[in-house]
Each structure stands twice: as C-alpha cells, then as structure tokens.
Amino acid sequence: MAFTDLFVVALIPVIKTLLITAVGFLLAVPRINILGDAARHHLNNVVFYVFIPALVAGSLADTVTASSIVSLWFMPVNILLTFIIGSGLGWVLVKITRTPEHLHGLVIGACAAGNLGNLLLIIVPALCEDSNSPFGDKSSCATNGKALVSLSLAIGAVYIWSYVYSIIGSYGNLSGKDISKASTISIDCSGKTLDMVTESYNEALLQSQSRRSSFEDCEVPDDVYTEAQEYDIAPEDDQDKKVTLFGRIKMYVNAISDKINLKMWFTPATIATIVGLLIGVIAPIRKLLIGDNAPLHVIDTSASLLADATVPAMTLIVGANLLKGLKKSSLGVWLVVGILFVRYVALPIVGIGIVKAAHHVGFVGSDKLYRFILLIQYPLPPAMAISTITQLFEVGESECSVIMLWTYGVAAIALTLWSTFFMWLVS
Questions:
Q1: Quick one: which of 31, 143, 176, 209 has the fewest CB in 10 Å?
Q2: Residue 384: what are its φ and ψ, rounded to 5°?
Q3: Nearest to residue 152, comparing CAs of 182, 183, 118?
Q4: Contacts 24+ apart (CB under 8 A), 68-72
Q5: What's the rounded Cα separation, in Å, for the pair 292 and 298?
Q6: Hey, what's the torsion of the CAs at 97, 103, 107, 112, to 10 degrees?
Q7: Cα maximum dimension of the chain
Q8: What is d(CA 82, CA 85) in angstroms, rounded to the nearest whole number?
Q9: Residues 404, 321: Cα–Cα separation, whole Å
Q10: How far apart are CA 307 and CA 47, in angstroms?
Q11: What is the predicted pLDDT for the residue at 346?
Q12: 150 and 178 Cβ atoms separated by less than 8 Å
C-alpha cells in the first residue's frame, strides 16, 4: 500500500474521535451546561460501572478461547513496559525542569499511563473497516481488534489503579491520609486537641509514660481505647505488657494492605476481564452463552447493546473534561513540551525496538493486527483516569487539565502519523 493511502486510513478514525470530543467540549460550556460537573460525574459512573464491564466481558467472551489466550501473554508485559519506561522518562523530566514536588506524581503518571481504552476502541475498528486496511477481512478484524483492545483496557486499568495511583498519591498532599492511612487519635483537654499518629507501635509504648503524666486530668474519649485495642497497644497503667507477636503480624499486614490498596486493583473492568476470560476459556459455559444457538444467547446480545454505548459516552466525557484545561495554572511551558516529547517521540521509538525484538524471537507471532496494537500502545495521550486520581488526592487538578488539553490536541497529529507508520511497518 502507498504511504499516502495508509495516512488517509489512519486519519479518518482520529477525525471521528476529534468530532465526538468537540461535541463533549461544547456540551460542557457553561452557557449550555448539559455536561456540567454533576452530569459528568453521573455519566462517568455509568460508564465505569456498566458500559466498560459490558464491553470488556462481552468482547473477551466472544473471541478469547483456551488456545488463543496462550498467544496473548506478551500484551501484559508490553503494557507494563510502557508504564515502567514512561515513568522513568517522567522522573528524568521532573528533575530537568525542576517541577514542584507536589506535581512530580502527576507528571510521572502522565508519562507512564496511556489511554488504552476509548481511543483504541475507535481507531482499531475504524482501521479494520476501511477498504485499504492491511489487516484482512473486515468482520474478523473488527471482532478480534475489539477483543484485543478490551484486554488492553482491562490490563491498563489494573496498572493505573495500582502503579500510577500509588505514585500520584505518594507525592500528593493527602498521601499520608489516603495511602498510609495512619490512625489519628484526638484527645480533648480543656479545649485543646492533641493528634497522635500511631504509625509506630513501639514509639507509642515508649511515649505512653510521658503522655500519662501530661494528661492525667484529661478526658479521653472511648475511641482512643478502641483504637489502642485494635492495634494491641498496651494500656498506660500496664507498662510492662509488651505487644504480642500476633499484634505485630496484624500491624504489618494492615500496613501492606493499605499501601497496596487491593480495592483499587479490582475495578469493574478488572472483574469483567476475569468473567469474560472464564466464559471464553471454559467450554461448557461458552456453549451456554456464546453463539446464535446458545440457550442464554440473549445475555450476550444484551451486553453488546450496553457495550455499544461505551465509546461515544467515554469520548464525550473526554471532551467535557478538556474544558478545564483552558484555565490558568502554574504548569511551565517546557514541562508540557517535555511530556509531549516523552509520549509522542521517546516512547514510540522505544516501543518499535521492543515489539520488533519480541517478534524476532517469536513472542508475538505473525498476526499483523496484534503487532499493530502492541505498537500503538506506546504513542497514546495520558489516560483520563489520571484526572480522577488527581481529584481523589486534590493535587494538581488544574495542571492535569492543562496536560490533557495539550496532549489530546497534539494526539490528532501524532496518532495519525504513528498509526500510518506502524501499518506500513507491520505490512
């Protein structure tokens, strides 16, 4: 195929994305205010809890089988490499530009996590449907492409809500409360408040004697004793009693579970991935649900109806969120340029080397569509979930909007050029 033909094929899905994004942007304008803050919040919940799980579970159940899942093992590795390499380049960037410390997590996260969801769900099927597509039959290409992108979306969600969530939180102002979740005890003494953070139980024991002498006349609420009992802290009047071995084990387990934050790992998309894979791999369940003659085929078709609403809803939210990027922020110009360089120059070049090496040693096989999706996972704008994470920690919200505005604006050109080159490369 001629390079110009590939360029036109790659340009059409990007234009579709931009048009839907522009509609979302206009709906969020204060004069129209259809997608205001409250509306975006509710629509985002519907997408997060209903549309995305239906899309992921349905796509994987339809296309993934016990034999095909073995050939997809490199995709989680490839996505993990995009996160690790991107975060490393982001760390170098914040050091070079001397970014304020509370924004380090935002910049590193923006360089690490790409939008592995709604953009690919538009781009890949559109590329398959074009008559000049190098990926063969339209219907099989679209079906397989949607399944691969759904798996990419689910794996990316796990990495974002574990890896990136922890990075942004560790630099945020609320990291001590939301990640470490150190217990705070308030003692009211004649109108005064003392905050005792029980991060170290040994320290609590050593200081118990001094606290007792200082607050003998204080009225201590019942929740202090409850907190002390929960962590097996010895009472002040029993100074010789030491923390039990069970108490220490419980302390370390609680600390690890708080930092890992397992609840954020098992998002609806992750659970839907597990359900979809089980349906596809386990033959008896697959025969019940998948196929025109399946007894419970209506469940699969209902999930498909919900899945069809995922892409337009997510893209409208992206456009509406970009409105915040027009506001002023303290983000430097060179920092934005650096993020653009990392996402659209450095990462794609590194990705070409990784995927070509994996193909050379036989890790990814000869499927052109699979190799293309592995390549396109590198030059993507930052994941929109980063905006949600910054809102959770209340750090860098306006700066995040500016980053999203510029990276998604430049993505119109960058994704078109890289998609064209990647199609030429695999064909």
A1: 31
A2: -70, -20
A3: 118
A4: 69/277, 69/280, 69/281, 71/365, 71/367, 71/370, 72/148, 72/151, 72/370
A5: 9
A6: 140
A7: 86
A8: 5
A9: 8
A10: 10
A11: 94
A12: no
- Separation in Å, CA 343 to CA 13, 325, 339, 407: 20, 18, 6, 8
**pLDDT tens figures, 386-420:** 877 787 777 777 788 788 888 888 888 888 889 88
CA distance 102 to 106: 8
CA distance 261 to 291: 38
Domain ranges (residues) in the chain: 3-178+262-426, 184-260
Please tell me the distance from the alpha carbon of residue 311 to that of residue 81, in angstroms, as a whole number.
Answer: 26
Q: Which two tokens stand for residue 280?
A: 């596809």
Contacts of 268 (CB under 8 A, 6+ apart): 48, 49, 52, 53
Helix (H) or strand (E) holding 187: strand 184-189
Mean pLDDT throughout 82-89? 94
What confidence tier does 46 reach under pLDDT thresholds 50, 70, 90? confident
Residues in the chain: 427
User: Residue 26 has which token pair?
Assistant: 């206009």
What pTM does this model have?
0.69
Give the residues across from 196 on adjacent strands: 185
Show the DSSP H helices in 47-103 as ranges: 52-63, 74-97
Residue with the two structure tokens 């790409």: 114
Instruction: Tell me which amino acid residue 323 is.
Output: L
Distance CA 165, CA 163 (A): 6
Q: How far apart are alpha carbons 76 and 207 in whole angstroms?
A: 48
If you search the block for the tokens 């259809």, which residue do you land on? 34
Q: Is the pLDDT of residue 254 over 70?
A: no
What's the chain's average pLDDT?
Answer: 76
Tokens of 264: 């954020």
* Cβ atoms within 10 Å, residue 184: 12
| CATH number assigned to the domain with residue range 3-178+262-426, chosen from the 4 options 1.20.1530.20, 3.40.50.1820, 3.40.50.720, 2.60.40.3080 | 1.20.1530.20
Element (H, E) at 24: helix 3-27
Written as one string, the DSSP assignment of 89-133 is HHHHHHHHHT--GGGHHHHHHHHH-B--SHHHHHHHHHHHHSTT-
Half-sphere exposure of 253 (CA within 13 A, CB side): 7
